[in-house]
Each structure stands twice: as C-alpha cells, then as structure tokens.
Specification:
74% of the residues lie in helices and 0% in strands. It contains 4 helices and no strands. The chain starts with 5 loop residues before the first helix and ends with a helix. By secondary structure, it is mostly helical.
C-alpha cells in the first residue's frame, strides 16, 4: 500500500546520492532540521519562557531536592 503521491516519489528519486548512500542520503536534512529545532527552542521566547529557561529551572530544582534528601539522611544518621 502506497501512502505518498507521485510528486513526492519524483522528488525523492531526484535527490542525489541514491546509488552511493541509499536511504542515508537524507541524513543531512535531518541534521539541519534538528539544529533548527534546537536553535528555536533556545532562542525563541513565548512571553518570558523558553525551553532553555524551563530546563535550567527544573534542573536546579532537582539539585536542591537531592541536596535536601542528602542532608535529611545525614541528620537521621547523626541522630541515631
């Protein structure tokens, strides 16, 4: 069962490197798309929030929680 149009098939067949690289000839396209997605997640803001700020905030919260748990464990050991 074919899910793509003849125009897409024509475009994919015209893409260079089919004989040498096979399916892997499309990898540069995905690298560029991934880099563009990463760039947009870091630099584009929605209001005051972007992905980078959200990630850093979550990472800081996890570090603080881990240190608090370690401190609680140390206090329990000292109390015994």
């Amino acid at each position: 069962m074919k899910f793509y149009s003849p125009a897409i098939r024509r475009l994919l067949n015209r893409w260079p490197g089919q004989k040498t690289f096979g399916v892997y000839r499309f990898l540069p396209v995905f690298f560029v798309l991934g880099a563009a997605l990463e760039f947009s997640m870091i630099n584009w803001r929605v209001g005051e929030v972007n992905f980078y700020n959200t990630f850093k905030q979550r990472q800081a919260q996890q570090i603080v929680q881990q240190k608090l748990l370690e401190e609680l464990e140390t206090n329990k050991e000292n109390a015994l």
